[in-house]
Write a structure and sequence with these properties.
The longest helix is centred in the middle third of the chain and has 15 residues, at 24-38. It is built from 1 helix and 4 strands. The chain is α+β, with helices and mostly antiparallel strands and 57 residues long. The chain is globular. Strands 2-1-3-4 form a 4-stranded antiparallel β-sheet, with helices on one face.
Length: 57
Amino acid sequence: MTRVDIQWQNQVGHWQHFQTMHNEANAFRTAQGRARSTGKRHRLVDANGQLLDLVEP
């Protein structure tokens, strides 16, 4: 089971932690919906800190 962190980018450009999930597909849907609703960039990062996906609003 893999750990996927959802992070969002604040107005200064720093990445803030939002949520940790264990299902990558569900994490992507959550990040995509939140990016649309907030208008901010979100990214998915694995347990090693490697970028999995970047979601634009």
